[in-house]
Amino acid sequence: MKLLIIDDEKHVRKSIRLLVDWDSLNINTIEESQNGEEAIEILKSGEPDIIILDMMMPLKNGMELMDWMKLHQIQSNIIVLSGFDDFNFVRHTLQHGAIDYLLKPINPQHLEDALKKAIDKRNESRKMKAEHQELVTVVNELKPVYLDKLLSNLLLFPDTVINNTMNNDFLELCHTGTCQVTVTNIDLVSNKEKTAASVIELCNQYLWERKKGYVFRNIIHPDEIVILHWNDFTDIDFILSKINQLLWDISGDQLEFGLGSPTAFPANLSTSYKEAINSLKHCNLLMSSSSRIHSGKTSFSTQFSSLGFGEYKEGLRLAVCSGNTGQIRAAVQKWIDHLYTKDHITFMQYKWWVEEYQLAKQMWIEEFTNNYIEELEPDQKRDYLPFPLDQNRKFSLQQLQEHIIDDLIVCSIKIIKYQMNSNNVIHEISNYIRKNYQDVSLSDIANQFHLNREHISRRFKQEFGITIVNYVSQIRIDKAKVLLLNPHLKIAEVGSAVGYDDEKYFSRVFKKLTGLSPTDYRNNESTQ
């Protein structure tokens, strides 16, 4: 800590230095000043933790100096020295929050007690300041989240009551006047989270910092990003074009934007939002402009018509099952030829089709692999189909055709590969073990497949690089990990459920394979 002694008498300053064991009080820096004016210059360069202040000094006395410190918000803890037992001095001292008022000559014990009191108060002040700063940090971090939630509610629930100070403060951060809403949907991009972060950061750097608008993710519909433009709507095309240029450069993606009408904020925010959503959902992708900004209404029949994919699913299913690339191309061509007859493909029609296509493909995989999807590689289970754009960044049926063909060929290869492996008796044994892991032995397997036990053991190890015993143990422990997430199941019950009737033996095997006892594993998972 740092101490400043302010007294016009040199021998008093020297006495104070000698009267106290400063090291024991953790005071490692001591400065001196012989009058109030000199003290002010020192205080301007840095605030000490504790000040020992004489009341009667030339140029500026102690009362005047305390007035100056209060005016300039000096937070040092003050101990006053005086040769006068004067009521006015004492009252002034108390009014300025001084720690103590000591009379000269100085009593060493009284000085030390006052210093300890000042140190305790200073430490408490530091602690409170740190806690306050931590709270401020948390509040600042939560402000965007709270604002996003408030605005999300206003979009969908126009009757939202704004009746407290915090809500009004947040809305004042935004704007009071006219607002225009733009909405985009990130459901069809390659990386939703990365895209959302990029769009929000780019827009808010331009709009929020210039007090022209605000961008947020709709908390109620997380695939939607909402852009609010305030008063000045001349740069909407500019900012949206910048977004799409950025996405094109990073990932090859593009976004479609629905634009609402200018309206009063926040009273009619939901009106502009609904218009923007309508414009986005029913925009014609086949006629999308380079700006990809859409506004206006669409007819009822166009809004709710489908793309007729159901009529072509069976042909695609059989082509995938055949494993023949030519058959897949031909089946996809029929579907694309049907799309070429249409003069409208809306954003929502395309989005619904993607969902229908992914669901159909998932069903084919389950059908052709006997529901054993685990055999497929992780990338085959992804639900992303690239948005079909040509080199001019326009929606392209030709690109859509190529994406579907590539996707289905990869899917078909994986299915055929699985089917070939499933015909291998060792893979059949693997499936048998997975289904009967709770109570299975090498003798059971040998009897089931009419093979020699030694031959099964040798071939299994060659194929999978692991013994059957260890394979069974690994399956059991993997299942046990899932069961351990249920806090109501006893360890013995978990062990019994996966095939171990002996709790101690189960715990020993579990720790051997995971490095943790079942209890430790459960505790670790519960804290994450």
TrEMBL record:
Residues 427-524 form the HTH araC/xylS-type domain. The keyword Transcription regulation applies. SMART domains: HTH_ARAC, REC. Keywords: Cytoplasm, DNA-binding, Phosphoprotein, Transcription, Transcription regulation, Two-component regulatory system. The modification 4-aspartylphosphate is found at D54. InterPro entries: CheY-like_superfamily (IPR011006), Homeodomain-like_sf (IPR009057), HptR (IPR051552), HTH_AraC (IPR018060), HTH_AraC-typ_CS (IPR018062), Sig_transdc_resp-reg_receiver (IPR001789), Tscrpt_reg_AraC-type_HTH (IPR020449). Residues 2-119 form the Response regulatory domain. It is found in: Cytoplasm. Coiled coil: none annotated. The keyword Transcription applies. This is Response regulator.
